[in-house]
Amino acid sequence: MLIDDIEYVIFRHPDLSAVRQFMIDYGLLDVSQEGDSVYLRAYGDAPFSYVTTQGEAAFVGMGFRVASQEALAQLAARFGADIEDCRHPGGGKYFHTIDPDGRRLEFVFGAQRLQPVPCDGAPIAWNDAHAKNRLGRYQRPKYAPSHIQRLGHVAVFSPAPQQIIEWYGENLGMKPSELIHGDNETSVLAAFMHLNKGSEWTDHHTLAIVGAPAPGLEHASFECRDFDDVGMGHMVMQDKQYQHRWGIGRHFYGSQIFDYWTDPAGFHVEHYCDGDMVNEDTQTLRYPFGRDTLLQWGPAFPGI
After folding, report:
1. CATH architecture assigned to 3-114+147-293
2. What is the pLDDT of residues 55-82, one digit of tens each?
3. Angle between helices 69-79 and 161-172 (to 10 degrees)
4. Neighbour tally for 186: CB within 10 Å
C-alpha cells in the first residue's frame, strides 16, 4: 500500500478574503495565513484540507498522505524527486511532482495530526420503516455550516482519460471501481478510481477522471457528518446567496448524497455523505454514459 488517503487540495485565487469566507461558510475552519497562502482545515485530524495562494484563479493540484516512510522513499525514487521538509502546517517530510496533465501532486509522510473538532451533536439516529433507533428524543440539527470531516475525493478533467487512468494505476496503485464508456467498452470516457489498500475498505473513489478537451477541475468533494449536515449546509449557503450548482440528490457512481456549490472564482465544491466502500475483492463495473447513470434521484444535471 502506497497511499493512505487524499489529504488536501491546492488552489490559486485572486481574492483570498472572498474565498476564505466562502469556504468557512461552506464548512471548513481557519488554520492560518502564511504570506499569501490561506490554509483551512476540516473537523477531522488532518493538519489542513485546503490551501489557496494569491494569484490568477487556478486549480493547482492535490496532496496525498503516504502510508509509510518506505512508501515515501519508493514513490520519490519512482518520480526522481527529492524528499524535503514539508513547508505546510503539520510538517513531516514530502516531495512533489506533476502528472501528465500538469497537475501538481504532493506526497506527505509524518505530518502531525490535529485533535478532531467536536461537531455540535451526534449523527442522525434514523427512525425508518424497518427500525426505530431514535426513541424518546428529537432530531434537532443546529443551524450552522456543514461540519466537514475530511477531503473525500477530487474529480479532474483530462484530454486523454485512458492514459491518465493507466498512469495513476501504474504509479500510485489506484484501481477503477467503475468505468464509463462510449459506444463500446474500449472507449473509456471516465473512471472512478479507489486506493489500493488490499482487504481494507476504502472510498469508492478518491480520484475521478473525466474526459474533456482540456485539463481542469470538475470538483473537489468534502465529506459531511451526515444527511442532515448536507441539508443544513445547503440552507446556510442558500441564505448567504452563494451560487448553487447542483443537488441535493444521490449519485449513481459511489451512491453519495451530493450537493454542489460554486466558489467566487468559479470552482465547484461538493458536500457529500453516505458513499460506497470497496476493497480488493470489489469487481470493476462498466457502464455506458447516459443520463440514467448521472444520478439515482435529484434534479437534472445542469445543461442536460
Report:
1. Roll (3.10)
2. 999 999 999 999 999 999 999 999 999 9
3. 130
4. 8
CA distance 90 to 283: 36
Residue-wise pLDDT tens digits, 77-120: 999 999 999 999 999 999 999 999 999 999 999 999 999 999 87
Residue ranges covered by each domain of the chain? 3-114+147-293
